[in-house]
Structures are given as structure tokens and as C-alpha cells.
Amino acid sequence: MARIIDGKALSAVVKEEVKAKVVELEARYGRRPCLAVIIVGENPASQVYVRNKVKAAAFTGIESLQLELPSDISEELLLKRIAELNADPAVDGILVQLPLPKHIDEEKVIDAIAREKDVDGFHPGNVAGLWLGKDCIVPCTPAGVMRMIDSIGCDLNGKTAVVVGRSNIVGKPVAKLLLDRNATVTIAHSRTRDLAAVTRGADVLVAAVGRPRMITGDMVKPGAVVIDVGINRTDEGKIVGDVDFDSVSEVAGWITPVPGGVGPMTIAMLMENTIRCFVEHNS
Ligand code: BQF
User: Is the pTM of this model over 0.70?
Assistant: First the structure.
């Protein structure tokens, strides 16, 4: 029976650390870090995510500023709002909640955020930095995944890691971070032939595909560390991961739950990234 990596508990520890750091930073710089969160439209999931971010900011003592923009806002006006936040010295971090309405080009919007304020780590300057091995802002979910792996004392050196999913936001950056720790990394995806044979080779398995319960116990190596990045809503309205928790927890050594796994860690890492942008903004 697998042990659980409790993302909720771990995120609480990280947020306490951030909270203490904010006190220290306020004493040193005379103000607190400030995170600007832009939401366009009324996607219910996005509204929940933005609420989680604003709540975490309040908990840690980070100031936040929420811009709620209508779904029919022009791309031009959204870019203008971002330019204003870029120029505002009181703002340390900026994020635009994704996804955006179809008439807006996400890439243009991400490129418009000042690299120095890009708390999501999605700006091409930060993406390049990650792949070139520079010390730069790391996307929150991949950073959270690594923190969870570290929390169990897992030494990745020489281990076989399989990432299922190749998105720019999770799969690709997580693979790079695992590679940086000397894991032997495979990125599998929807076209991978005999996926189960690939995943069964994994000492560390990261699922980030967006298909409910697709990783089943027969696809997992006994004792493996299984990290579930998925958040899917079933027909019954239940939130489940990409991992079939019941069957996989019989085989794995460690497993992250959904909810209460990677999700809370994503939010905690956003707070850390905001502090980092603040410190760099002030020095
Ligand atoms: C939990 C996200 C897909 C697409 C865009 C806690 C969050 C989620 C779950 C959360 C996510 C997922 C966020 C739990 C932010 C993570 O208790 O399990 C927190 O707020 N997330 C996002 O901003 O955009 C997304 C997933």
C-alpha cells in the first residue's frame, strides 16, 4: 500500500515559510510584495483558481490586486492593461489566468508580461532560461512536483522517470527539471505505443495528460513514486486525477492524491515565485 504525499500539508508548510519571509521583507524594504491577477471572462474553474491564489496571497501577507475583465475585452485593451501593470512599480508579479477566450492570442499576452514580473514562468525569456540551465522563474506546477518528490527524500540520480504529457506548462518543464537531477527521462504522450510498457519502467511517474484515471495499477512499477497532476471532473461531478488512485495505490510506493496533491503545491510555489520577483525587483 502506497504512502501518500500530502500536498495540502506540504503547501501549508511552504506558505508558513513565505509568510515569515514576507515579514522580513517588509521590514527590509518598507512594503510587501504585490501580485496582480488578471482574469478574463467567467470560466468557473478559472474563478476557483484565481480565488485560491488571492486567498493564499492574503494568508502569506502578499498584497494582491485582482483585475476582472469582461470576456469580450479586445486583445488590444488586455495588452494595454498588462503594459500598465508592467510599468507600475508597486506591482511585483503579474499573472493572466488561462485559458483565455478564443479571440485572444495567449502567446501574445504571455509575451507582453515583463519577464521580471512573470510569476508563472511562461514568458519565453523564462522558458529559455529553464532550458539553458539558468537560475530563473520556474513554472509553479513543475516546481510543486519537484518539491513533493524532494519532500520524501527521493534521490533522482540515475532513476528512470516517465512524464506522461507534453504540455509547455507541465510536461516539458517537469521533464527538464527531472533531467537536471540526473534522472533518465522519457516523455510519453497520446501517440506513445504501448504506454503501459513505458510507464512500467518508471521509478518516478508523473501523469499530466488530462484524462481521468488513465494510469491504472497494471501500468505502474511496484514501489514507484507516482505524481498525479491531473484535475478532471467525472460525469458524476467528482474531481479525479489522471491516476486511478485505488488500483495504483496498491502497487506504488508513494502517490499524490487529487484533490489535495499537486494543486495546493502549485499555489504555494506561486507565492514563492512572487517573493522572488519582489526581491529581484528591489535589488
Ligand atoms: C486541490 C489549473 C488546469 C488548467 C489551468 C488546489 C488548485 C487546484 C486543486 C488550483 C490549476 C490547477 C490552476 C487544488 C491552479 C491548480 O486541492 O487539489 C488548488 O488552484 N490550481 C490554475 O491556475 O490554472 C489551471 C489546472
Answer: yes
